[in-house]
Design goal:
4-stranded mixed beta sheet, single chain, alpha+beta, 9 helices, 292 residues, elongated
Length: 292
Amino acid sequence: MSKESSKKISAAPSWLGLTQDRLSFVFLPDRAETVRKIFQLAIGGMGSYAIANYLDEQKVPAFTQSLNWDNTTIDSMLRNRATYGEYQPKSFAGGHKRGIPSGHPISGYYPAVIDKATFDAAQAARQQNLAHRGRKGNDLANIFGDLCLCAHCGSKVIFHRISNVQVLVCEQVLSDGACSRSAWTYKDFEITVLAFLAHPALFDQAGDELKAGLLDLVQEIKGLSSDQERRYARRVNITVLLKRIVAGLVIHSAGNLTLPRHSSAQIRKDVAGRFLEIQLQGGLVYPCISIG
């Protein structure tokens, strides 16, 4: 970077500092690690409210003078292309406080705190927000997010409430499609999947990388009941780990039913004979885990 171009910068991004002569950028190590963690959580499916609450609970210092993280700060960071090194020159003519884009973006201007693939993965995950937490994010309701697919029609299976009961149901059902018109009680589904993934028999078939993820997952699952103060943080960690371990969950929420029901039919919960197929990273597949 030339001296002339560097002096056009009034400040570096919040995870970078400037050398005293302002000729180069330097990482602020703790902040750089926090940025990487935020992107990891976003890719794991956390929304901005959920990430902010998680960072506050973990007592991670905010980048502003505020004592707490704000969801708008998280949103802005996740959209900021400076994270992978891109700089967009701006014009402040006409009194624009934030400036307007002027000219083409400059690649490699900043040292990248993440790579472009990580940035793109976070953008995709933000479109499939796993948090489902409500406006203020009071609970991490669904740890599976977009991992779930309907065995009957191939559509996504999403988190929903039926008469205050939390369920997983094919999105076609909620858009007036017929499909199986069946749902799986979320609590039952979560217990089933986590119990299976924590089973010691899985370790015999897992490769080293998958085995490491499974070990971490087991520790977090064990801590759910014994560590109530960190229960929310543990559920966040489980959400991220599931992305590393599980390639997909194919849900037969209506058992072996192959014919769709009429779009006006009542949605049935926990149909006898329901089962799922667990697809792990690395090609391991465990079909026909029968329930009921």
